[in-house]
Design brief:
Layout (H helix, E strand, L loop, with lengths): L1 H28 L13 H53 L3 H15 L1
Length: about 110
Amino acid sequence: MVAAALDRTDSAMGMAMTVLSFSMLARFAGIEPRQLKPSDLDPVKIWMAVDDRAHRGWDRTVKYYENLKLVIEIQSRLKDWTEQDSSVPAKRADTGGNQTKGASANNAGRSERK
């Protein structure tokens, strides 16, 4: 007798957890709770809706990835520019007021490149 009552409790709890799980999945998927109609159970409509959601999800993922690549590229260029800007004053400070040395160093560099 106790085992039969315990079995009913387990099955009731199992059903309750199943309903809760499906309701959470439906809420996450964006399905509004409403009364089902026979047309809602048409396999073609179900397949089209699932296919449409899959394509939209894929498109959103690709768009996010492409935008992420663009953001990373912009960030790396900005970082390079700021590093170049911070190194330019240090080079100017090294040459200081000694313009003749800097000019001869520049001419020597030019002759090596040719």
